[in-house]
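chain below, 270 aa
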Amino acid sequence: MLAMVLPTLVSMARGPWSLESGVHGPIVVATGLWLVYRRKDAIFEMMEPGAPWLTFLGLAIAVPLYVFGRAFDFISVEVAALLLTLLSVAHAYFGLKVLRMMWFPIFYLGFVIPIPGWLLDTVTQPLKLFVSQVVTEGLSYLGYPIGRVGVTIYVASYQLLVEDACAGLNSLVSLSAIGLFYVYMLRGSNIRYSILLLLLVIPIAIAANCVRVAALVLITYHFGNAAAQGYLHNFAGMVTFTSALLFIFLVDKLLTPVRNALASDAEAMA
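prediction:
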């Protein structure tokens, strides 16, 4: 297994994890393994070797896919196949009951799989259009000389291209992963509220990136393009992500009455 795991980890570290879109990867791996470790006693109590045919079926699908992804540098296929291989091996030793019990850590670790480029392009294009439109209309209302053509924003004599990182998908994936972990650890017993809080991650991530793009436009307008494209660009990304994460915690706090009401309804229906 190490012959499969180590090369993939190296590829991830050199590729997706070195980019803004994959910054959550190491965090997901570490916290996901911790979620498994904290249930080790229950795992060993329930362990029972799984059906050989199901293990073989999983490996028969996963191993060729892993070889294909590795050979042709399809990192998304490679990582997904590696996870399926690990699941198949875990099934062989611990059985299906344990895998069912560990459904959340398994699902959570799925966030490690990098988003394929074609899917990234398909999803981010409407997001980029939306973000650029919101920023342009908002700053125009405040009196700034701003306009746009597609995802290109023009302010004074400068032009800025709203790229994938600014569209919100990167933050959306990272916030969804961390938000999912937060909800599971603190609100996991309240399923309906957990779903509500996770759904709120989407508008929060998009709104945060609208603020990020607006801030970069204002920096460009007042201090020049060099300032916006330098360290302030990356700093704005970190501040945006941190602010959005803190806002999720704040929303959770403000929705305490809703959480209590949903919990009461669930108890009444039980």
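The chain has 14 helices and three strands. Strands lie at 146-149, 152-155, 158-161.
thats it, cya
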